[in-house]
């Protein structure tokens, strides 16, 4: 099972499972069944009764280890707060914006002041639709930059999260993590392969979410990162912040 924790009580799926399910639904697959055997047995999802889908969080891992050891997820309360706040602006507005949040640890134990200031900043941006200048704010170790983006469908604000303690988007971090995560999942599913005609692997990007969103960036990634994935019919990386953003390796 992919790494993750129960984030709310809406259903039995964890965070990564919901992102993957929503991505598959976005791609047009309507029959997506979670845990067709049981939660402790592959696959994690099943498409149309034939395509087995395994999931894993694609996270930065410790160096010098033969097995994946993810860094602490101390960004989860911040991520939850940001997604909840940005979701309150989902009504129709005439402008679209990228919200980049860069942070270092330690983070504030309570985010109330940060959320209040950020809400005011976002509202000010929306109240000035003719402005094209970036809006910025700082709260302790958190830096926010709001930049205008071209008109598009919802949402009004798209989130880009940058964990400065774990570094910016660096190709060798993806190379290292993919080199651990893909073989690990191949081993886990080896004895279950005969049961299904196809096997897909969905990796929910937790290294630099949104960094691979554009097709240009994805093409550059494919050209520079070498990944051994012969055990899988498809390997898909999905932005954990926006299930609509995903690409095939």
Instruction: Report the strand count.
Output: 10
Strand content: 15-25%
Note the run of SSEs as H and E: HEEEHEHEEEHEHEE
> How would you describe the shape?
elongated
Q: Give a short account of the largest sheet.
A: 6 strands, mixed
* Individual helix count: 5
Domain tally = 2
Overall mean pLDDT stands at 82
**Radius of gyration using CA atoms only:** 19 Å
Widest sheet, order of strands: 1-2-3-8-9-10
Which oligomeric state applies? single chain
- The termini sit apart by 21 Å
User: Low-confidence spans: pLDDT under 50, at least 5 residues?
Assistant: 1-10, 68-72
Secondary structure class reads: alpha/beta
What is the share of helical residues?
25-40%
What labels describe this entry?
249 residues; alpha/beta; six-stranded mixed beta sheet; 10 strands; 27% helix; disordered N terminus
State the gist of this model:
This protein has 249 residues and is α/β, with parallel strands linked by helices. It has helices spanning 15-26, 76-87, 112-126, 171-189, 215-224, and strands at residues 32-34, 45-47, 51-58, 96-103, 135-139, 142-149, 157-163, 198-205, 234-239, 246-248.
Molecular structure report:
Helix content is 27%, strand content 24%. It has helices at 15-26, 76-87, 112-126, 171-189, 215-224; strands at 32-34, 45-47, 51-58, 96-103, 135-139, 142-149, 157-163, 198-205, 234-239, 246-248. Strand 9 and strand 10 form a beta hairpin. The model is unreliable at 1-10 and 68-72 (pLDDT under 50).
Topology (elements, then pairings):
Blueprint: H1 15-26, E1 32-34, E2 45-47, E3 51-58, H2 76-87, E4 96-103, H3 112-126, E5 135-139, E6 142-149, E7 157-163, H4 171-189, E8 198-205, H5 215-224, E9 234-239, E10 246-248
Parallel strand pairs: 3-8, 4-7, 8-9
Antiparallel strand pairs: 1-2, 2-3, 4-6, 5-6, 9-10
């Amino acid at each position: 099972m992919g790494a993750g924790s129960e984030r709310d009580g809406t259903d039995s799926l964890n965070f990564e499972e919901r992102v993957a399910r929503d991505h598959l639904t976005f791609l047009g697959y309507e029959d997506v069944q979670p845990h067709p055997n049981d939660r402790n047995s592959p696959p994690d999802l099943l498409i149309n009764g034939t395509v087995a889908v395994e999931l894993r969080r694609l996270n930065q891992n410790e160096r010098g280890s033969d097995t994946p050891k993810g860094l602490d997820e101390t960004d989860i309360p911040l991520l939850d707060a940001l997604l909840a706040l940005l979701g309150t602006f989902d009504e129709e507005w005439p402008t679209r914006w990228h919200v980049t949040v860069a942070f270092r640890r330690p983070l504030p134990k309570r985010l109330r002041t940060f959320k209040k200031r950020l809400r005011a900043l976002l509202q000010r941006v929306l109240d000035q639709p003719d402005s094209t200048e970036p809006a910025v704010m700082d709260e302790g170790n958190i830096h926010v930059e709001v930049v205008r983006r071209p008109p598009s469908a919802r949402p009004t604000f798209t989130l880009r999260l940058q964990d400065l303690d774990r570094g910016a988007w660096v190709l060798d971090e993806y190379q290292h993590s993919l080199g651990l995560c893909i073989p690990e999942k191949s081993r886990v599913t080896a004895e279950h392969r005969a049961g299904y005609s196809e096997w897909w692997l969905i990796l929910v990007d937790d290294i630099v979410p949104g960094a691979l969103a554009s097709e240009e960036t994805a093409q550059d990634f494919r050209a520079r990162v070498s990944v051994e994935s012969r055990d899988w019919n498809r390997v898909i990386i999905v932005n954990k912040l926006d299930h609509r953003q995903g690409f095939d390796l």
